[in-house]
């Protein structure tokens, strides 16, 4: 079967080789990657990877649809043969890593447990900053192991998911978190499951973006989400901007994601498969050089940003902000009552 990963990138070359090696080891057979307006050489790296047969690279430098950069890329992808010909599709980001707990940790092992699935929600498990101040050229999966509790009660964004779905015509278009344009004549036969293997109700077939919080969602599979990285890297993320939103990132985004109350190293069990692939990519003389240049660019860009007052101020606030604490169930219920009261 063809498992296609769809990715959009800007200035993330320092993390690209680890991400690709991990997901090839997990079982993705094809990668469709869109780049936009890169200054760190990410686009050149993607050209080289395309030459080596690792992926398909499309430059997405504009103009953009009013919905933003990522939606423009996904609309382009919807017209491509490699998307039409894929058996399974997943649109996700460079800071998200598929972590399968069943069988040998691969996509075929996951589908062996859920053979009739049309879609499987890969719920985030948020990995925090782990008090890392300066960016280091080390694998993300080794560096950041502090994370949110397996059962989290707030915020709801902590249980958002990306969707691995069967490309059988039930859905006609890719989406950021879930497939779009459902064929209503096929929805009754669609089978959605969560990361625990539980059958999901009809709301998930057309509109849900997050799993139920206050319960475990990860027994079979989770999506390790590393939205922050080192404080230094977070400044570069703020500088880069968001691909599907217009509002700027700040301390509020940081606080809602900086959980390090628990430890989870389960994703490292795929290392025997991913490490040789990562070494192969780094040993390519062109890719290895481009990786080092991307690392140097990050350090130089951080130094430049620190001469600008808004970024300097943000960095000092991050240094003063402690890790986020998990909200208990009773407090979360109180917050939900206020939300529902306001909605009514």
Task: Describe, in plain words, how this protein is organized in 3D.
- It is a single chain.
- The protein is α/β, with parallel strands linked by helices and 344 residues long.
- Helix 1 packs across helix 10.
- It contains 13 helices and 13 strands.
- The strands form 3 sheets. Strands 1, 2, 3, 4, 5, 6, 8, 11 and 12 form a 9-stranded mixed beta sheet that branches. A two-stranded antiparallel ribbon has the order 7-13. The protein has a two-stranded antiparallel sheet with strand order 9-10.
- The chain is globular.
- The chain has one domain.
- The longest helix is centred in the last third of the chain and has 21 residues.
- GO terms for molecular function: glycosyltransferase activity.
- It is a single-pass membrane protein.
- Pfam families: Glyco_tranf_2_4.
- This is Glycosyltransferase family 2 protein.
- It comes from Pontibaca salina.
């Amino acid at each position: 079967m063809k498992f296609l990963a769809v990715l959009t990138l800007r200035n993330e070359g320092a993390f690209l080789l680890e991400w690709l090696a991990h997901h090839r080891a997990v079982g993705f057979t094809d990668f469709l990657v869109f780049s936009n307006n890169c200054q760190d050489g990410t686009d050149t790296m993607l050209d080289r990877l395309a030459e080596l047969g690792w992926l398909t690279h499309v430059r997405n430098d504009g103009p953009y649809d009013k919905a933003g950069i990522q939606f423009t890329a996904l609309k382009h992808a919807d017209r491509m043969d490699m998307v039409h010909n894929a058996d399974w599709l997943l649109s996700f980001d460079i800071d998200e890593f598929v972590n399968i707990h069943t069988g040998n940790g691969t996509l075929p092992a996951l589908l062996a447990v859920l053979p009739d699935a049309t879609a499987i929600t890969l719920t985030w498990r948020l990995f925090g900053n782990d008090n890392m101040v300066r960016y280091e050229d080390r694998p993300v999966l080794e560096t950041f192991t502090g994370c949110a509790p397996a059962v989290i009660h707030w915020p709801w964004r902590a249980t958002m998911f990306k969707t691995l779905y069967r490309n059988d015509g039930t859905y006609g278009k890719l989406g950021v978190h879930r497939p779009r344009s459902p064929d209503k004549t096929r929805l009754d036969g669609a089978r959605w499951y969560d990361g625990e293997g539980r059958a999901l109700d009809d709301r998930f077939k057309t509109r849900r973006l997050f799993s139920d919080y206050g319960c475990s969602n990860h027994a079979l599979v989770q999506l390790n989400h590393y939205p922050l990285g080192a404080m230094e890297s977070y400044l570069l993320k703020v500088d880069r901007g968001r691909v599907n939103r217009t509002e700027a990132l700040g301390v509020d985004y940081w606080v809602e994601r900086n959980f390090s109350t628990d430890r989870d190293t389960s994703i490292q069990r795929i290392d025997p498969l991913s490490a040789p692939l990562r070494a192969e990519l780094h040993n390519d003389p062109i890719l290895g050089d481009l990786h080092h240049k991307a690392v140097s660019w990050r350090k130089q860009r951080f130094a430049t940003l620190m001469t600008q007052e808004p970024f300097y101020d943000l960095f000092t606030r991050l240094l003063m902000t402690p890790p986020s604490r998990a909200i208990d169930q009773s407090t979360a219920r109180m917050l939900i009552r206020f939300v529902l009261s306001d909605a009514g």
